[in-house]
Amino acid sequence: HKLLDTGKVWYTVQIGEFGDVIPENMTIDYDNPYNANDTIYYKIGSIILREDTIEKKVYSRFFSNWDEPSGPEELLYNFSLEAGDSVCLEEYPNCWYYVDSVKHIEIFETFRKILYLRSKENVGGYYFYPVWVEGIGSLAGVHIPGSEPQIFIWGVGELTCCYLKNNLIYQSDNGAQWGC
Fold first, then answer.
1. Which segments within the chain are labelled E, that is strand?
2. How confident is the model at residue 153 (pLDDT cuts 50, 70, 90)?
3. How many C-beta atoms surround the C-beta of residue 135 within 10 A?
4. What is the pLDDT of residues 18-63, one digit of tens each?
5. H helices within 22-165, ranges in order?
6. Is 84 helix (H, G, I), strand (E, B) or coil?
7. Which of 1, 30, 38, 129 has its CA at a distance of 20 to 30 angstroms from the CA of residue 18?
């Protein structure tokens, strides 16, 4: 399952600094591809992404204030991982994550690979447990692969649902409450 697909929309919700609920939807801007060193990226939020469908990896670059990519390309997702593998997500203070387990689960009549990760070390006394769904991304939000879904912690979110060409392909347990 491709992560970057035309007509895909991710809906997330998070709690703001003062406890307000912030819904957000993200789509990929396919109308304005970005060419960096003969590599085509697509903008989603404040990052640009490219996907290697053969390797099952997604790479990102962040944008500066001047609408230019800043910094090197970084691995955002690796959906080829299996239980026991590890991955470094550079944008997080503790970049190393282990894959605790992998399952194949039917979601809306389609089997998808689910990767359950855990941070190598605790950060401030806390381990992170991200969950990745092949073709959908992190359950904390497509652009934050190193976080676990948490609606009630400031600055962290939860993917409430994902649509592909107006067809629902994922909905969280909280999706109906927070809206899709």
1. 8-15, 21-27, 29-36, 39-44, 47-52, 57-63, 69-78, 86-88, 96-107, 110-119, 131-133, 137-138, 157-164, 167-171
2. low
3. 20
4. 777 788 889 999 998 988 878 899 988 878 899 999 999 999 987 6
5. none
6. coil
7. 129
